[in-house]
Structure formats: structure tokens, C-alpha cells
Amino acid sequence: HQGWLTDDRRHFLIDDELDEQNDGHNTRTYVWDVQDLEAPHLEFFHDGATAAIDHNMYVHEGYAYQSNYQSGLRILDLSQIDSGTLSEAAFFDTYPASDSANFNGTWSNYPYYASGVVGVSDINRGFFVLQPELCRAPEVANGLVATPNGDHRIDLDWTASATPDASYTVERILGGCSGSAVETIASGLANPSYSDTSASGVVTYGYRVRSVAASGECAAVPSTCVEASTTGSCTAPPLFGGIASAVSAGTATCAIELAWPAAQSTCSSTVTYQVYRSPDPAFEPAPGDLVASALSTLGWIDSSVSDAAPYTYVVRAADVGNGSVEGNNLRLSARAAGPLADGDFISGAELGTPILSATGDSPMVATMESPQHVAWEIVDTVAHSGSRSYYSGYNNSECLSIGTGPITLTPGQSPTLEFWTRFGIEAGYDGGVVQISANGGQDWTTITPIGGYPGTFNNNNTNACGFPNNSGAFTGTAAANLNWSLAQFDLAAYAGQAIQLRWRFSTDGGLTDQGWWIDDIRVSHAQVPGMCMSGVDLIFANGFEAAAAAQ
To answer: Does pTM top 0.85 for this prediction?
Structure first.
């Protein structure tokens, strides 16, 4: 939803407002290395203590201030970000009733007052003025000098921090100051000097030092980076960004296809690759997770997987000559599925089903659209089945849509759309309409349910989406409309085509009501991934053995 640079502009922290609801994990912050703006890459992610949705986030003096809806203001310490670690330094829960993934609680905050006060806005409970008791970063350690001193040794000296009782952390960057392979090689140093006796010969390193407060709870920005190289054998690992893709092979035999870019040898040696796998999406690779090694290719097919089970992968590069292995923790996840086949596309807002997403709207009348989050979201307060449904409340003069991605309908069949709905929508003036596109979302056509819509617009075209008078819509405030009812649509005219569907909610400038719910969406005769079989030899992966056996 929002990103912010760290104070040294090396890292970019960003959150995805929908992933907690869509994927079911805790509040997740993604950390990107943006030193090279032409080749940014994801370094790692941090999962918070609760399932709350993340919203606005800011960075100030070594801390990230996150407004995480129902879990309130969360403050993360960034002092160990170069080592792939964030930690929570403080929090204030403005919505103590729940920490679930819903759109209540804190929306934004402002941490830049000189007094250290943080202003926090809460959708439900108003404005909070907080005074976090945070560690203040010590003065920066400057004057770093790196001097080669024999095989595999580089001596470091720097000017002590002006802050009393500060300690020091030393960071080393393989490939020099412009590199991205950062590691912490020493911490808790009391004196302003250190000898790196694990340095590889031949290669160039960048070094920088951070001063750390006596409490250990915060650190200064790093010193200016300096470079050095020394003598001795080349023992450095390759430079490697990690796995690039993990996708289902879509074959009869369960398999997941992995791919990665070529690593760069730092020692002019041959590079091979190791693959680690775990059901844990946040795992740290261990010997027991190794599923393939000594790979010389830029990809691998994992055929020892089960249908629909989640797997997470890490790929690391190894130097054949010196045996060193780099330590990236970039993770990608995938599930195996079989070939596409005729079936049902189903979405009920539940975890594990395709999740609908907002679609762009350009109002056809000159009206101001409402703030986001009065609009479509996933809720767990009302559902036709399961525990979740799609819901949009509303303000005046809104044109808001939620829709599917592309769905290919099976040729020669008679596909249908059905879903369950309930609504409390100002009769005639506001309404909900279902539309279809067969050209990638460029053009949309309104479709009518079997038996017709339960009402019509009669507002002289003043609704924000511009639906004309007397056109059908889900509209009305009768109590019976809040009972779930089934809506069905004939899609036979679109058989064999790739379609998208959207639910479009349009309001005028007058009264409002409760909103619109949809659940248990089903498109019949759609091309969906079938089941795959585990433990079958790869030579039968395309499924042709079944056809041969039938002859």
C-alpha cells in the first residue's frame, strides 16, 4: 500500500494491503535493496505479531512507524536491517477489540514532530497523541580506514562515536561498496578497531561501521563505506540474487518448476546451485531442507510434491572450487496442480480460493469519488458459507468495482455464473450491477440475471458510474433484501472465450444505506487446474500414457 526509504536510502520498506486477507499470514513488511535503481531486488520480509492489515508507514531516525489497522501503531527497529532482521520496538493498540485482518483501527500516523510525539488517526476511535519511549541513535562513527595486513586479513580503524558507551557493529559487503551482499561480521565491539581475519584473497570488500547505543536497542546510520582487498587464496562465495520463479508445471504428474538467474563467480570458478524446500513460508534453510544440489542449470523441476500442497523454496549458489555457499534467503512459494480441464471457477473470499481484486473505475459523471475502504473489502462478520464474504459499504457519489482475473470458458459448453448476494442499497438512486469483458477489460457489457434484476435505477443518471434510468440493478432497502439470495447468469454466448467479471457499485449524491455483499461465486464450465498425481515417473508427466492404455 505504501513504501518508505530508510534514512540512508539503501532500503525500501513496503507493505501489501491485501496480502494478509488474501494469503492468511501475519502483517508482512517487504524489504527491498534499492541501491541500484535499475535492478532493485527483494531482500527479505518481516512478519509482525498479529494478523492485522498494514496501511500507511513512515521511516524516521532508524524506526519504521506502521499504522496496521486493528493492531494499532507498530514501531519497528531498523538497526539490523542490513542483516535481514527487523524487530518490534514499541506498539500502541488503538483497537484492542481485535487484531484480525479487517479494515478498522488506525489509518495513518505522523512521526516527524521535533518533540518525538507521534500523531495517530483511527477510523473508529479518533485521534491519538502518543509519546513513544524509544532509544535515540548514537552519533555516527566516522573516519573508517581499511588496511590490508597479510593473507586473509584486513584491519579496520575508525573515529569513536561522540556518544558515551556506544558499541560498534562492522558490516562487510562482498564486491565492494556498490554490492548488495551485506553481512555483519562483528558486533558489540567496545573499541574503534577490528581485524577481519576471514577475508578472501583476490576479491574487493566494502566495509562500514555502525555505532550502537549502550542499551543495544538502536544504531546510527552506517559510516561512509570504504573498500579494500588483500592477498591469499580466493575463498569468497558467488554473487547471487536468489530464486526468480516457482510455478506449477501444470502436468499430470505433480511438479513445480523453478528458475533463477546466473550467479557471478567471485573466484573465477564453476558455480553450481542448491535447492532448499519447506512447507514453512518463512523457513531458514537447513541441511534437512536440501532437496537438490550440484545443479549446473538455471532451473529445476521438483517432482516430489503433492497436489495443492504449499511449498516454499530457496536457491543458493555454491563455488565448486573452494566449496563456499552464499547465504541469500529469498523465498518463493508455489502449489502443484494438473493440466487445465473443464470445471468450476469458485471464489468465496476464503483462503485458498482465488481472491477478487479492485478494478479501475473512471466515473462517467463529474463527481468526487469517496475515500478507499468505504469500498470493496473482505469481511468476516457476514458470510453465506464459510467465514468470509466480499462487502462494500458506501458514501455518496461512488463508482466502485471488484472483479476476477481472466477466466477461460470451455468451448462447446453452456457456462453459467452464479453467486449469493444480500444488500441494503438506496432504492433507485444507488445500485449494483454485474458486467463482463471479453477483451481483457477494455470494454465492459452489463449482463442480466435469469429472471432480471430485483430493481432499476431511476435517478436521472446521477449515479457515479452513469448507469441510465430504467436499467436493472441490485437495489432496495426492504428487510428481505438482507436475506441471502441466489443470482444466476447465462454465459453461453461467451463459451470458448477468455472473460473477466466485475461487480460494479454506483451511488448518487444523496442518501446511503448498509451496502452490498456477495459470496460463493461460481462460474461453471471454466478451464481450471485439475488435480495432479504424485510419485509418477516424469516420462509420463504429460498424461499420454492414459490415452495409450485406452487403445
So the answer is: no
